[in-house]
Specification:
Blueprint (H helix, E strand, L loop, with lengths): L1 H12 L9 E2 L11 E4 L6 E6 L2 E4 L5 E2 L2 H12 L2 E2 L10 H4 L8 E6 L4 E6 L1
Antiparallel strand pairs: 1-6, 2-3, 2-7, 3-4, 4-5, 7-8
């Protein structure tokens, strides 16, 4: 029984072993691979498309976006760190304000193969 209790306790703790450690929210995103950025909720979003080394605002006839502001947005998002695990149950995400439908600010980074989404309260 003691051996089984130790094994179960060891297995049960593994998914949450790092819950007290601070980690970056977005990991593995190469800014050079970002092809598109959307900011805001669907229907009200600003769409930024990469054109060469810069971005243009697709909603405004591809008007050039300020490179410094785009770099600041990307850097700020990449610098966001988690402080603690609040929940791993998706049913609680709406109450925390981290679903797409109730997020105050929604930033999405698009690249060739996948989308990285970030919801901010």
């Amino acid at each position: 029984m003691v051996v089984i209790a130790v094994l179960v306790a060891g297995i049960g703790d593994k998914p949450y072993a790092k819950k007290d450690q601070i980690a970056y929210l977005i990991q593995g995103l190469d800014p050079d691979q970002i092809a598109r950025i959307t900011i805001g909720k669907s229907g009200e979003e600003v769409v930024l498309n990469r054109r060469g080394a810069n971005f243009v605002v697709a909603n405004l006839d591809n008007y050039s976006a300020k490179t410094g502001e785009i770099n600041k947005l990307i850097t700020t998002c990449l610098d966001i760190q988690t402080s603690e695990l609040c929940t791993d149950n998706p049913a609680n995400h709406k109450d925390l304000g981290v679903t797409e439908s109730n997020a105050r600010v929604l930033v999405k980074f698009y690249k060739a193969a996948r989308i990285t989404k970030l919801s901010c309260r």
